[in-house]
Amino acid sequence: MFKIYTTGQEFLDENINIIRNDPLGTTFFEKNAQAIAHCNTNDYAIRIETNGQLLLAIHVGDYPIVLYGSEHCADELADVIANNQLIFNKTIGPYELSNAFLTAYEQRVGGSHEVHLFMDVMYCDKVNPCDTSSVQRAVAKDVADIAHIVVDFTYEALGEKPEFSQVYEDVSERINSYALLRLDGAIVSVASGYDEDNGLCRLANVYTLPEHRNKGYSRKVVTYLTEQAILGGKIPYLHVDQHNPVSNHLYSSIGYVYGKSRYEIIYVPVCIED
């Protein structure tokens, strides 16, 4: 049995308890649903129920289709998407679920898939003690300095150098989410903690200038944001790279533990020759 919703709000009305009961497992669902005024072949939300098993899927804009639930429903989801000619080019979800869906979909319409990104998720509900008295909240005059740091962080982490003007605008809009540590008046370490509507607080942009590393500065800033999130009734979480044991050890020492891993997988359609 399946249902293709007519609006994102209808999807939320029927599934909000599932989403709220597992906010880490359903990251992106509530935000994506709120972006869908009317469903169509590109913006859609689906619920599959098969033999007592449940699967939710949502797609909006150019973002990946987000999957949550049982891989035992993957065949029916593949039928629904293929038969209704619904559009997607990537998936995000647990590997077993995404792989089962894409394999079933490719059996119907052809194509192939490959892993693009792997994201470990870590979250925290109890913080280990750390002196955070030197950590400050960012203010408007810090926007430019933080934007330069975020550009350097993005280049170091992803090998991509974003446009400074865009980063400046993003930082400016969320300046209240940043915490920082100064040394001799200059910012040497930053991180952001963005409160989400689903009871989560997403930490990101954790970066200490290279010449000031191994001094515990990132630990202080991340601990500060983590404590603030928990005091505010939020679950702090972040995405980490499994190939970066140094940063992962940092988060573990603060009190973070591993949650459900997510994979972003690219679907490659069949090429039609002229």
- Tell me the radius of gyration: 21 Å
Largest sheet: 13 strands, mixed
- The chain-level mean pLDDT equals 93
Low-pLDDT ranges = none
Q: Hey, roughly how much beta strand do the residues contain?
A: 25-35%
Number of helices: 8
Gap from first CA to last CA: 39 Å
Decide which structural class fits the backbone. alpha+beta
> Fraction of residues in helices?
25-40%
Coarse shape: elongated
Q: Any descriptors?
A:
alpha+beta; 8 helices; single chain; 13 strands; 13-stranded mixed sheet; 274 residues
Structure description:
The chain is of the alpha+beta class and 274 residues long. It is built from 8 helices and 13 strands. The protein has helices spanning 8-21, 29-34, 74-83, 95-109, 143-158, 164-173, 217-231, 245-254, and strands spanning 2-4, 44-50, 53-59, 65-69, 90-93, 112-123, 135-137, 178-183, 186-195, 200-208, 235-240, 257-258, 262-268. Strands 1, 2, 3, 4, 5, 6, 7, 8, 9, 10, 11, 12 and 13 form a 13-stranded mixed sheet that branches. The longest helix is centred in the middle third of the chain and has 16 residues, at 143-158. It is elongated.
Brief overview:
The chain has 274 residues and is α+β, with helices and mostly antiparallel strands. The protein has helices spanning 8-21, 29-34, 74-83, 95-109, 143-158, 164-173, 217-231, 245-254; strands at residues 2-4, 44-50, 53-59, 65-69, 90-93, 112-123, 135-137, 178-183, 186-195, 200-208, 235-240, 257-258, 262-268.
Write the layout of secondary structure elements.
Blueprint: E1 2-4, H1 8-21, H2 29-34, E2 44-50, E3 53-59, E4 65-69, H3 74-83, E5 90-93, H4 95-109, E6 112-123, E7 135-137, H5 143-158, H6 164-173, E8 178-183, E9 186-195, E10 200-208, H7 217-231, E11 235-240, H8 245-254, E12 257-258, E13 262-268
Helix pairs in contact: 3-4, 5-6
